[in-house]
Amino acid sequence: MIGKVFDYYMNFKLIDWPTFLGALFILLGVSLPLIFFPEAGAEVINLANSFMTGNFGILYLILGLGCFLFLVFVAFSKNGRIKLGNKDDKKEFNTFSWAAMLFAAGIGSSILYWGMIEWAYYYQGPPFGVEPKSNEAIQWASTYGIFHWGPIAWAIYTLPALPIAYFYYVRKKPVLKISEAVRPVLGKYVDGPVGNIIDILFMFGLMGGAGTTLALGTPMIAEGIHDLTGIPVTLGLKAVIMLLCTVIFAVSAYSGLRRGIKVLSDVCIWLTILLMAFVFIFGPTVFISETTFSSIGILADNFFRMATWLEPFRDLAGFSETGFPESWTVFYWAWWVVYAPFVGLFVARISRGRTIREMILGTMIYGTLGCILFFGILGNFGLYLQLSGTFDVIGFMNENGAPAAIIAILHQLPMAKVVVGAFTILAVLFLATTFDSSSYILASVVQKQMKGEPMRWNRLFWAFTLCLLPLVLMFIGDLEALQTASIVAGFPLIFIMFLLSWSFIKASNHDLKSSREFKNPTIHISKKDKDVNPKSKN
Ligand code: NM2
Predict the structure, then answer these.
(1) Ligand 1 pocket, 107 CB below 6 A?
(2) Is 329 a pocket residue for ligand 1 (Cβ < 6 Å)?
(3) R_g of the chain, CA atoms, integer Å
(4) Which GO cellular component does the record give, naming just one (predicted)?
(5) CB 3.0-4.6 Å disulfide test: which of 22, 74, 107, 156 passes with 336?
């Protein structure tokens, strides 16, 4: 008995309560009013969306392009040649498994959703004032998806990995919290409320991003189940699906992180490869290859135009506003940024033995290539159905909604029931792994110390808490509400991203300088892979 009480006491003491409660209160503060006053809530959400995108849209776009340029600069600077690890550390993972893990960590069920259907939105609501459903609209439809999942997006993901990996492998100070990663800039303030606030904002961001993900993925799974069993799609079914995913996660968490989640993510990867190969082979193979290849060219040609386009004249008379950058590019950069610190923690963990340059170029190139594969195959299959007149995806989508359209597109393949079954299982597994990884990170941020892994009750608590926001968002129901979750939650992270890059530059420049001045013998520029290894006491 006394032992139990002591255990509870120790558990209690391990939690960083200001951060725990701060994050919980913000979540409840956002979700509860929306549950009790859904109509007024929907209005407030719309207002928040147009306020943020209308006034601060430019900040998100600067963030995106800024991350990209900054990382390219770092990759080719002296700092980029710094090796993450000791002089003779080998790469911990070979490049193939490194790239696969990176992709699996950063990408979830949403790529199934948007990979299949994003083109349909662009085709009927194209950018740059182009005529909807015109030939030009087709080109943008197949290109914009890979832009929103391309090099800028992956640069946003990579940026937080820089300071985290640097502290981990070069300064040998493990970073479990984002607040720790900005210590070179904020100094001792990190140990006080400022540090708590940074961690709470990071948690709030992740909860918003996961809210968008879960509220998008769940209706798609519901449609799949409806297709296979005839059960009508209701909010009840969606709630059950989300709980089911949480329970799958809980069971796998209890069977031990290694085994449970490893099995799940391996199944995910193989099922994904199978599905893609199936669509590629049984779909219009030549059309898919050609369209994908051409859109890479269109993207390369228009990269900076797309990265900076904001419709500045939208409010002036005589200009018809498309709302495109606000609805898409701003939303996307926000959605990537809310996941970025979390993916950064993971990327840092798997990158021992690589140089910073290899880490940067690897994430940006392999990440982009992976997304091109998804969007190229899944998206262009749907586009082909539309253009060839085989199936009117757009008409169907406008009538029945995007999740139903996704399942209907899959129905155009041979062995449709099997394909829909595999797709639905895949989406469930992806969602379960999102619960897993997000709750892992949320739980670790609110713990003062960790012996290996965060406490189980703590992880389960955050896994179930994560269901709350998406439930509310699905109840409110429209795409704009889902997007707003990421846009609002991502805003503070723009500034945290700036601190993170500053922190990396400050620390690595300091170490490079001291290693030059003091002829630190641990510095290493090998002839073979030209890496530098500064090590300093600081
Ligand atoms: N991103 C990649 O929902 C998911 O699949 C997780 C989403 C940020 C658009 C990440």
Answers:
(1) yes
(2) no
(3) 23
(4) plasma membrane
(5) 156
Beta carbon of 108 within 6 Å of any ligand 1 atom: yes
**Is the minimum distance from the CB of 245 to ligand 1 under 6 angstroms?**
no
114 lines ligand 1 (CB under 6 A): no
Q: Is 278 exposed, middle or buried (0-12, 13-18, 19+ CB in 10 A)?
A: middle
Position 250 scores a pLDDT of 73
The predicted model gives 335-359 an average pLDDT of 92
Mean pLDDT of the chain: 88
CB 391 within 8 A of CB 98: no
| CA of residue 534 to ligand 1 center, whole Å | 35
**C-alpha distance across the termini of the chain, in Å:** 47
Is 6's pLDDT higher than 70? no
CA of residue 512 to ligand 1 center, whole Å: 35
| Domain 18-82+92-512: which CATH number of 3.40.50, 1.10.3470, 2.20.25, 1.20.1740 | 1.20.1740
Domain map (residue ranges) of the chain: 18-82+92-512
Six token digits for residue 249: 């996660």
pLDDT single digits (tens) 251-283: 766 665 556 666 777 788 888 899 999 999 999
pTM strictly above 0.90: yes
